[in-house]
Amino acid sequence: MLLLPVLFFLITTASSTRTPPKYQIDLNEDPFQRWDQVIQDHLDYLPGVVAESKKYIPKPLQPFVWWVASKVERYFPTETRLELEGIAAKSGLPLGEIVGLNILYDIAAFDRRHVFGLGCTSIVAQNSAGQIFHGRNLDYDMTGLLKNITVYVDFMRNGSVLYSGVTFALYTGVLTGQRPGAYSVSLNARYSGAYIDNILMEFYTKFNLPVSFFIRDVLEKQESYEDAVSLLSKTHLFSPSYIIVAGTKKNEGALISRNRWSAANVYPLDMDANHWFLVETNYDNWQKQGDDRRITAIRKLKQLGKANFNEKSMVEVLSTAPVQNNLTVFSSVIVPARPEVFDGFTWIWD
């Protein structure tokens, strides 16, 4: 019932949107077969996505990167490795290309902002009643291709939803997700350091923690907002990132600016100090911004105000240009205290 008013609201605020197809991944099933239906439904789009993704790796390094990608899956946890092998078998694509696509963020997250246009936006806002809202626009250069393979997934265990995420066919990690009734997480790219820093961290961590795999693992195993924020702040990762977390209680919202070793900064919500929202794009929030997305979102949030802020208010912020732009693939509003909002308020921009 939630979906109909949401769709009506979106139709009145956007020229063309659609909801992503929804799937269930049963964690009790054989990992090799879990993604079969997702892959089967998207076979026509997959080769083009893999071909385009190769352009994001510096050309002189491509032979080395794809060779390493074909070898590193042996270091992944068993279930992750079997899921990737199953996707390769079902899609007919080489395993190295599947692994490479799944760690594309990690091997491309270095100081190369000049290569990109705009990027992702994540927002956590708290209304005057202490209700927490998490907004997310995922932007990426492969916009048209990614829209065709965007999926909403409920990860099930013993017949119940353990966690949910918006992800892509071929991609087993999670960049936007929710643990129902507990917390939500979104990742924005942070471009910092040299390419060699990523390679060194990959070897140091023995390829165990690509950031999207790590976020999925946190959603699967950490039951509380506090534990999720602690782990997301302290664990060594391949690559720099901004990780935005929202909870269910007053002031449960945090913007984690990640270095490869640990957090450079953790900035929390603080209603008592009138810090009732957090906005992150792709720049350190304590430094000059490279475009107008963050200042536009802040202006819109202040205009709407915290008194009556709700999920539809967040839709307004996410739909405002240039927060929403030509690179925006999908948008989500998540309210971890009301898990059904995530499904009903996720849409692809056409």
From TrEMBL:
Membrane-spanning residues: none
EC number in record: 3.5.1.60
Keywords, alphabetical: Glycoprotein, Hydrolase, Lipid metabolism, Lysosome, Signal, Zymogen
InterPro entries: Acid_ceramidase-like, Acid_ceramidase_N, CBAH/NAAA_C
Subunit-structure text: Heterodimer of an alpha and a beta subunit, produced by autocatalytic cleavage.
One annotated GO biological process: fatty acid metabolic process
Any Gene Ontology CC annotation: lysosome
Choloylglycine hydrolase/NAAA C-terminal domain: residues covered: 120-287
Protein origin, superkingdom: Eukaryota
Similarity comment: family membership: Belongs to the acid ceramidase family.
Protein's name according to its UniProt entry: N-acylethanolamine-hydrolyzing acid amidase
Organism name: Caenorhabditis brenneri
Enzyme superclass (EC): hydrolase
Signal peptide start-end: 1-16
Subcellular location: Lysosome
